[in-house]
Amino acid sequence: MKSIKGLLAMLLAAILLLSGATACAPKEKELVTLRVSEVTHSVFYAPQYVAIEKGFFAEEGLDIELISGEGADKVMTSVISGAVEIGFSGPEAAIYIYNEGKSDYAKVFAQVTKRDGSFLMAREPDPAFSWEKLRGVHLLPGRKGGVPYMALEYVVKQAGLVPGTDVEFDSSIQFAAMTGAFLGGTGDYVTVFEPTASSIELEGKGYIVASVGEAAGEIPYTAYYALDSYIQKNPQVIQSFTNALYKAQKWVTENSPEEIAKAIAPSFPNADPEIMVKAIARYKEIDAYSPVPMMTEDSFDRLQLVMETAGELSQKAPYADLVDNSFGDKAVSTVK
User: Which CATH architecture has domain 32-115+219-334?
Assistant: First the structure.
């Protein structure tokens, strides 16, 4: 009897010990879900997908829910309406909203790409292409007022051509439908992002003849932004997001197109691996990826010059009001 009582006592002690250990064990930190509206799904935004697939966002306590915006205007509408916390598109959307006089406007807190990511495609190969060859052609440039359209217009004007007079800028086709329209026979040239551009080349249905980003020069092409009120209320969330992005930017800078393509493959399940590598290599060649999250004032001013040249900007927005580099600065100084 004594031995049975002793055994029961030992079992009870063990149960209590295990219960105590379970109670004292640190609980797994719950991730904060952030809804992010991306302007389009492209390897042009490789650092974002690296941050997701390499677990950098998760390391910072974030779970990212990506939503397809299909246009900077739609992305900004989602941010203003509260449908998403963070928008990801050209920062021109933030400039437009600021100039409308809204008290709670969107503020840029991290930059991802520093050049236009679209490529000009023709129906036939043209190794000797020059921008002068666009004279008299039918061109599909994207949505009027969007950075892809304005950057192309800027390049065309720099070449001495007048859009609408020397070149037909057909903005009647939605951004998401441009490639299909071109493949269906509309237009002589079209601007296309990767990996779609390389896919079209592989099929022999179109050929890259120039990089708009290379010709236009450095501008803050794609960035993350949120309403100022959200940033003020959730600075740690924005900091964590920026930290994860910077980890990814460092990783993209230090790794080859092959390694980057392998890392982001789950975000592009139907993409051809060879095309992915080729697309990323092209973006690295034109120095499209920003190595740090901060946006410089010079590049911001250049963006507004491009917008002014396109006739889409009535007044310049102040850099100090629209851009908050404090999160990027802290990420660069603390993330190893």
Answer: 3-Layer(aba) Sandwich (3.40)
